[in-house]
Design a protein that fits this description.
CATH superfamily of the largest domain: FAD/NAD(P)-binding domain
Shape: globular
Strand content: 15-25%
Strand order of the largest sheet: 3-11-4-5-6
Number of helices: 6
Structural class: alpha/beta
Bound molecules: flavin-adenine dinucleotide
CATH architecture of the largest domain: 3-Layer(bba) Sandwich
Length: 252
């Protein structure tokens, strides 16, 4: 507040306010709307009640009652670890992290993996989820998760690939009883919002910027996860600082 910054709450760009409106009011705009739509695996049963997107679960802090329940978290990054540890602390009976590669290849920080193990999280390395199955014979209309079908994987070094790829081991399928499944396999920008901005994006839907963080529209800047940079706090903070300097130059 001492810097004279005004914060306007409950405004959603692309919904309650448009980029055109901002352009009319301000000489420069900086977009830092993140990239928080959970990715999906497109497997059978992903639409069942009890399947959640990991970062939405944490971002909105809206959780089901985990007490006495079994939860599978799919993924190998820091988001998967954060989800698993949060869910365990909220009372889940058993929490599994299912990751298709080996422990050494897990992108999550080593310290976090160790701490998760100490907290009682079960890691299923070189395992993949192939299907989510609903409870059968229930009187409810809503179909809920009852179990998951998994498959074991082996790691195969393919020519030209930097790291070995997980390949399903035929016939190694097995089932695990589960109450909830949390997908933590990455996130992407909210396409509906990004498209409404009429700004150039790359093939993955991230906003493109030049070396001064300016987008394809003059005076509209962007930084952080929405530009597809390495999804860490440090890189986002750096982008914010660099973009602020570039915006100051632009306004001179
Ligand atoms: C569960 C989880 C764990 C993580 N763990 C780590 C970690 O351990 N270390 C690390 O370095 N990084 C971690 N990250 C990544 C890190 O949080 C991000 O890289 C960083 O926060 C990106 O900053 P940002 O400002 O670009 O976007 P965000 O921090 O995502 O902020 C975007 C903001 O814009 C708002 N918004 C979205 N759309 C609109 C709209 N249309 N209009 C207005 N506002 C909008 C969102 O509500 C949000 O508040 C983690 C991320 C998650 C989800």
């Amino acid at each position: 507040m001492e810097l004279g910054i005004q914060v306007k709450y409950n405004q959603t760009l692309g919904k309650s306010i448009t980029l055109q409106e901002l352009q009319q009011k301000y000489d420069a705009v900086f977009l830092a709307i993140g990239s928080n739509v959970p990715m999906q695996m497109n497997i059978e049963g992903e639409d069942l009640q009890g399947v959640y997107g990991g970062n939405k679960l944490l971002e909105n802090n809206e959780h089901p009652d985990y007490k006495g329940k079994k939860v599978a978290v799919i993924g190998g990054g820091n988001v998967a670890i954060d989800c698993a540890r949060t869910i365990k602390r909220k009372g889940a009976q058993e929490v599994y992290i299912i990751y298709r590669r080996a422990e050494e290849q897990m992108p999550a920080e080593k310290k976090e993996i160790e701490e998760a193990k100490e907290e009682g999280i079960t890691f299923l390395f070189q395992n993949n989820i192939v299907k989510i199955l609903p409870k059968e014979n229930t009187k409810e209309n809503i179909k809920r998760v009852q179990k998951i079908e998994c498959i074991k994987t082996e790691l195969v070094q393919k020519e030209g690939d930097l790291r070995p790829s997980p390949v399903d081991i035929k016939g190694s399928n097995y089932f695990l009883e589960m109450d909830y499944v949390v997908m933590a396999i990455g996130s992407k920008p909210e396409q509906e919002i990004v498209k409404s901005l009429s700004i150039q994006t790359n093939t993955k839907g991230y906003i493109e910027v030049d070396r001064n963080y300016m987008t394809s529209q003059k005076g509209i800047f962007a930084g952080g996860d929405i530009t597809g940079s390495k999804a860490t706090v440090a890189w986002a903070a750096r982008a914010g600082r660099n973009a602020a300097e570039a915006i100051n130059e632009y306004l001179k």
